[in-house]
Specification:
The chain has 329 residues and is an all-alpha fold. Helix content is 56%, strand content 1%. The protein has two domains: 21-140, no CATH class; 160-320, no CATH class.
């Protein structure tokens, strides 16, 4: 700029080095610890599930954009995230065609049908999971356990020398809900991922490592995850206070199922979550409450998926009534 002259341009005037591709690929990197933990605990075949889901999501988005004559933007990484997240919330032993169907539905129905990135109302990966669960309930509720688990329940045992890839049994949440066994899981095993469940949601340790990256980078804030997980802890604690006072159920509910993955990586989706910090807390409390209602009173042992989808529907209403004051007002 020459002395005495100014440059006048259209808003926005505040620029930042972060871009959509930069943010999306950072999220992909933050998901890698959870993905690698799933592959480690459930075997190399689970890597095929992840790759098929990602490839299908990317191919579906590129094909739809080509058909409607829009610029192909799969290089931004958003379709990769959808494919990864979908693979992480389905059982590791599903038929290999199932993640392909789920990824196609996630992109075609939950994302592209609404206008693409930034316009979708619901989290695409969770919509894909919900469709798969409704369409293929047996495959989506047949769980594999990693080797090395000494005791799964009162009738099924396994050891590191077992000559099988994995064994099938109910998840920790399902066993707790059914009350059919006296099985008490190791909290450490739940934390590191040596229990049955979906491919990428079992290792809380790996997920927290990835979540720390997003928090440090400022791509997410603590408001939704803490209020979400905290609400689940409080409700389970209150229920146990007036029940059998078996407070070990609190860490079981926190470390089992998709709570940590959902709270840090799905409920915080920039497109489908509230814009304000106060709105984020309301969103998290609502999601935590719905999760507990489904887990404690519903017929399904897990409720994170439906809780987040239901709160996605309330996001516009939350944003409407929870607004910061305008400057000068």
């Amino acid at each position: 700029m020459e002395e005495g002259k100014i440059v006048v341009s259209a808003s926005p005037h505040i620029r930042h080095k972060d871009s959509i591709p930069r943010i999306m690929w950072t999220v992909v990197l933050s998901l890698l610890p959870g993905v690698l933990a799933g592959v480690y605990f459930f075997g190399a075949r689970s890597l095929l599930v992840i790759l098929i889901s990602i490839i299908t999501a990317v191919a579906t988005e590129a094909t739809i954009q080509k058909l409607i004559h829009k610029k192909i933007t799969v290089s931004d990484g958003s379709a990769v995230i959808t494919g990864m997240l979908l693979a992480m919330v389905i059982p590791p032993g599903v038929p290999l065609w199932l993640p392909a169907i789920g990824a196609f539905c996630s992109i075609a129905i939950a994302k592209s049908a609404f206008g693409g990135l930034g316009n979708n109302i619901f989290n695409p990966a969770l919509v894909g999971r919900a469709i798969l669960l409704a369409s293929f309930p047996v495959a989506m509720t047949t769980w594999k356990f990693p080797l090395g688990i000494e005791k799964i329940n009162s009738t099924v045992t396994a050891s590191a020398t077992t000559a099988v890839d994995s064994i099938t049994a109910a998840t920790t949440l399902a066993l707790e809900k059914s009350k059919l066994t006296e099985y008490v899981p190791s909290i450490w095993n739940l934390f590191i991922g040596r229990e049955g469940g979906s491919l990428g949601e079992t290792s809380v340790l790996a997920l927290l490592i990835g979540a720390a990256v997003l928090l440090i980078r400022g791509y997410i804030t603590w408001h939704i995850p803490v209020s979400f997980i905290g609400t689940v802890a409080v409700i389970i604690g209150v229920v146990q206070l007036f029940g059998d006072r078996n407070f070990i159920l609190i860490p079981i509910h926190l470390f089992s199922g998709g709570l940590v993955l959902g709270a840090f990586f799905m409920a915080t989706d920039m497109v489908t979550s509230p814009l304000t910090k106060k709105g984020g807390i309301i969103f998290g409390i609502g999601a935590g409450t719905i999760t507990c209602i489904i887990r404690l009173l519903g017929g399904y042992p897990e409720g994170v998926c439906y809780a987040i989808l239901l709160m996605n529907a309330f996001t516009p209403l939350i944003d409407r009534y929870v607004k910061p004051k305008r400057f000068g007002v």
